[in-house]
Amino acid sequence: MKTALLAGLALLLSPAAALAQTGPAAATLPNSFDQTITVPAAPVIVQTMADERSEDALRDFIAGAAAGDIDTSNLSDALVTAITAQADQVTPLIQSFGAVQAVTFVGKRDGADLFSVLFANAETEWMIGFNDDGKIGALLFRPASSQ
Question: Distances from the Cα of 30 to the Cαs of 24, 33, 35, 137, 147, in angstroms?
């Protein structure tokens, strides 16, 4: 699994249902054989203000993972289960990133906040969202895109 993460696949730390998305309709384009193929629309990222809890919660999670001691009190039960199952892969990976250099809010997508997190040894993108109980219900990260 660590190999897959390093290859650039997003690591999902919550059940897929927590991040169920209803994005814009897919576009269709004709191909050279006069057939129609469906191309998914790009995700919509909205430029707005971050949830006031997001950056601190994200920094706390990263610090806990780097220390090998994630505080689960502010996580949903489903997220605790997912993180516990992946801790052996996630903790050493986050530790390998080194110290946090900068956390920058990028925008919102489907109600979750997107952040760019620059570490000493890695550039990453994070998504964090809260459930109705005010706990973190969705959390994922991946290497930063090269775009």
Answer: 19, 8, 6, 39, 26
Question: Per-residue pLDDT tens for 59-104?
Answer: 999 999 999 999 999 999 999 999 999 989 999 999 999 999 999 9
Q: What is the pTM of this model?
A: 0.69
Extract the tokens encoding 73: 């009190």
Residue 62, H or E segment:
helix 54-67
**How many Cβ atoms sit within 10 Å of the Cβ of residue 94?**
23
Contact between residue 108 and residue 84 where contact means Cβ atoms under 8 Å apart:
no
**Directed axis angle between helix 54-67 and helix 77-96, to 10°?**
60
Q: How far is CA 30 from the centre of its chain?
A: 33
* Residue 63: count of CB within 10 angstroms of its CB: 15
What is the C-alpha separation between 8 and 147, in angstroms, rounded?
14
